[in-house]
Amino acid sequence: MNGRDRGRPPAPDSIRPFEFPPVETGALDNDMEVRVVRGSPFPIVTGMIVLRSGETAVPEGKGGLAVLTGNALEGGTKRLSSRELARELEDIGAGFGVAAGWDSTTVAVSCMADRLQDALPLLSEMVRRPAFPAADFERYRAQLVAAAAHRRMDPASLASDAFARFIFGDGGDYGRPLGGTEVSLGSRTPADAHGFAAARYGPSEAALIVAGDVEPAEAMSLAERDFGGWDRVIEPGPEPGAPARCPQRAVHLVHRPGSVQSEIRIGHPGVARSVEDYFSLMVLNLVLGGSFSSRLNLNLRERNGFTYGVRSRFSARRGAGPFVVSTSVDNAVTGAAVREILREIEGVVEDGPTREEVDAATSYMAGVFPLRVETTGQIASRVAELVIFDLPGDYYRSYRDRVRAVDLDQAAASARRHIRPEELCTVVVGDADEVQQQLEALGAGPVSVHRDDDEAVP
Amino acid sequence: MIEIEQHRLDNGLRVVLAPDATTAVTAVNLWYGVGSRNEPDGRTGFAHLFEHMMFQGSAHVAKNGHFQHIERVGGSANATTWFDRTNYFETLPSHYLDLALWLEADRMGWMLPAMTAEKLENQRQVVMNERRERYDNQPYGDWDERIQSLLFPPAHPYHHTVIGSMDDISAATLEDVRDFFRTYYLPNNAVLSICGGIDPAHALGRVDRYFGAIPPGPEPPPLPGDGHVPFSTGETLRADVVAAVPLPRIYMAARVPPFTSDEFYPGHVVSCCLGSGRSSRLYERVVRGGLGRSATCHLLPLTTGATIFLVIATGLPDTDPDALEEAASGVLDGAPTLAREEFERAVAGLETREVRDLQQVATRADLLSMYTTHFGTAARLNEDLRRLREVELEEAREWAREYLHGENRVVVRYLPEGRA
C-alpha cells in the first residue's frame, strides 16, 4: 500500500453479529431462582450460588462478618472436614472460591462440564450445612485480621479505606473496610457465623447460576436435585439507607513517613445501581476518567507525567457507593495533581463533555461488552448482577442499544446531577512533611493532618 | 484442538492465524523477541521504557492515537515487557481487524519519525512513577530485585529486573530509543498472532497489505552476558530484609530447567502439587497449619539457560519467620515423596485451568505467539495437554529430587520492623 493509504485508519469490514447468550430462568418450589446460560464452545462450566446478603446485612460492630462467614464456608461441612472438602473439589479438577461483597456472597466453581454433577452437591453442602469448626473458623478469622493489618501498611488500601470513612462516616453503610478491622473481627466466634448463615443464607434470597457447556434442562434437574430440599425460611435483607452527603470540601492528609508517592482519592458519595440515568452516567465517567483516553489520564499521565495512571469510578451498589478519582503521584507534584483533578472534575460538570467524547465513549462501552463476556465465569458474574441488583431478565440483550442511545445532553445532565464539586473530599496518604504545604496552598478546603493512622481508619 | 495456520511473510514476519467461528471478537497479538534480558549493564529498564514509547505515536498515528483509535471502536489494548519478550495486543470487535493491523504495522515500520525528546521525558516520568507505585512505595515491592540478584550471577541476563533502576531509566536518551528500535523492532524478530472471528485467507491478505512493505533487518545481536548457569546455587543463599511490612513473608526460589526444556512439564506438575489449591502441600503445612495467610508455588515460563521456581509464603502478624521458613523448606525437601493421589489431583487441576484460560481469544493469541517464539511452532499449543498428561509420577519425583534441594535455593525473608 502507498503512503497516502497508510495515512488514515482503515474502514471496518462487515459486522459479525453478537448477542448475549439466552438466559433460561426458572425457580424451585422453595423460591430459589435458577438461571442457566448455555454459551460455551469449550467443555467447561461455571456454577455459582448467589446469596443476596453481604456486608450491609451485618449487624453494627461486627464489620467483616459476611466476608468471614463466606470464607469460613470452606472450613468444612457437617459431613466433610475443610481438607476433605478441598480434596473432593480438587480431585475433579475444579477451581472454587467464595467472595463476599457489600451486597452479596457468591460461592462459585469452575470445572469440566462433565464434572458439574459432582461439583454442585459440594457447593450445596457448603452453603446449606456449614460446620464452622472452631479451629478452622479461627484460622479464617486470623487471616482476615492479617489482611486488615496489610491494608493499613499498603498505601493504596489505606487511602481507599480512609476515603470511605471520611465520606460515609462511622455510622454509614460503606464507611468501614469491607473485610472488617482488627477490632471488629477481634471477638468473632463460630456462633456469629452460624447466626449470620442461618439468618441470611436461604433459598428465597438465593439463586443458582450455571453457565457453559450444559443443557438447560440438565442444569435445572441438577438444581432440583441439589437445592430442592433446602427449606430454610429467611426474611429479606435490609434495604440500603439514605445516601450520605459531605457537608463541604475537605482535605485529609494521612501522614505516612517516608512515602515516595502520594496516594490520592478525591470524590464524594455517588449513586446506587438503581439510579435512573445509569447508562449516561457511565458514559460520562468514561469521558472523565474511565478509560485510557479519558480527560484525567491524558492530563495527569500523558501531558504532565505525574502518574502511572489515574481513573474515576462510580461504584454503584444497592445503596449509593462512592464516586472516586484514584491515583498515585510523585511527592513533589502532589499539590499540582490534586489541582488538576479538581479542575477536570469542575470542568466536566460546568461545560459538560463534547459530542466527540460522548460518541467515543458510547462506542467504546458498547463495543467492549462482548470482550468481557467470553468466559463462563464472566458470564455467570454478569448474570449474578441481574440477581443482586434486581435487573430485568433481558437486560443484557438490550444493554448495547441503551448505551448507544446516550446523547450529549444526557451525559452532561448526569454530570451535573451526580457530581457535586462543592462537596469533594480529598484524601492524601503521603509524607506530610513533604506534601502538607502543597495541599494548604491549593485552597481546596481545610487541611486536616492525621499523623496517627488510627484517626483515619480505626 | 485449536485450528491453527502458520505463515511467514517475505520480510520474515511469522504469522499465526486461529479462526473461531463462534465469536465476534478478535485478538491481535504481537511478540517481539526482545525483553529485559537484552539490556546491557547501565541500561536496565530500557526495554520497558521503550514499550511505553511505542504508544507515543508513529508516522501516521498521533501521540495517544493508538488507545484512542482502539477504544473508540470498543476494543482494548495494552503491552507488557518481560524477561524474554515484549508483547503488544489488541482485542476488538472482529470487523475492526484492519484497524489493529494498521496501528501495529505503523509503529513497527514507521515509529521513529514521531519520536521526540519531549515524549521521552514524559514517559520517563510515567515509568518512574510506575516504579515508585509498584516497587518503592509498596510493601515487599522490591522482592523480585532481591530474588533475581541472588538467584542469578551478575553476568546472567536475569540478574536484573524488567523495571530496572531509577539511575538507568534517568540515563536513557532519544538516541537509545532509535538504536533499540533499529536493532530489535524488526519483522524478522516478531510473531503476529490473530485469533477469533476471522477468515484466515482474508486476514493473511490484510497482514501482507499492512506489514508486507516493512523491511527486515539484520539478526539481532547475541544476548549480553552469559545465560549458562548450573541448576544449582551451590548452597542456600539468603537475605533478611527488615522493612515496613505488615506480615513476615518468605520468597524462596530455585534455578530449574527452562520452559523450552522437556523437563518443564514435570516441574509444572510438581509446582502444582506443592503450591496450587487448597489441598496442596504448602497450603496444608503453612495455612492449615496456622503459620500463615497464604503459601503458593509458581514456575515461570522463562527460556534463558534456566527458569525460576518460586515459593511465596506470607505469615500471620505473630508468626515466627523461622518457623515459616522451616515449613516452606520442609515442603521443598519433602517433594520427592509425592503420592499418586496428589499427582493426579494436580494434573486434573492443570487441565481445567488450561481449558478455562483458552476461552479468551486474547489468551489464545498470546500463547500462540509464545509457542511460536520459543518453539518455532504454534501447533505446540495443541500438544500442551497431552504433554502434561504424559508426565509420570516418577518423573515428577525425580524432578523434585534433582532441583528442589538445599544446594539450589535462595531465600529472601521480609521481617516487620519494630519486632524483636
Provide a compact summary of the structure.
With 458 residues, chain A is an alpha+beta fold. Chain A is globular and about 65 Å long.
Describe the protein's architecture and organization:
The complex is a heterodimer of chains A (458) and B (420). With 458 residues, chain A is α+β, with helices and mostly antiparallel strands. Chain A has two domains: 23-227, Cytochrome Bc1 Complex, Chain A, domain 1 (2-Layer Sandwich), CATH 3.30.830.10; 250-455, Cytochrome Bc1 Complex, Chain A, domain 1 (2-Layer Sandwich). Chain A has helices at residues 3-6, 65-72, 82-91, 116-128, 134-153, 155-168, 182-186, 190-200, 216-227, 278-288, 295-303, 334-350, 355-368, 376-388, 395-404, 408-418, 432-440; strands at 23-27, 33-38, 44-51, 95-100, 105-112, 206-212, 250-255, 261-269, 307-314, 322-330, 425-430, 447-450. In chain A, the strands form two sheets. Chain A has a six-stranded mixed beta sheet with strand order 1-2-6-3-5-4, with helices on both faces. In chain A, strand 9 and strand 10 form a beta hairpin. In chain A, helix 10 (278-288) packs across helix 13 (355-368). The longest helix of chain A has 20 residues, at 134-153. The radius of gyration of chain A is 24 Å and the shape is globular. The termini of chain A are far apart. The mean pLDDT of chain A is 95. By secondary structure, chain B is α+β, with helices and mostly antiparallel strands. Chain B has two domains: 5-211, Cytochrome Bc1 Complex, Chain A, domain 1 (2-Layer Sandwich); 236-416, Metalloenzyme, LuxS/M16 peptidase-like (Cytochrome Bc1 Complex, Chain A, domain 1), CATH 3.30.830.10. In chain B, helix 10 packs antiparallel against helix 11. The longest helix of chain B is centred in the first third of the chain and has 20 residues, at 117-136. At the A-B interface, helix 3, strand 5, helix 5, helix 11 and strand 10 of A face helix 2, strand 5, helix 3, helix 4 and helix 10 of B.
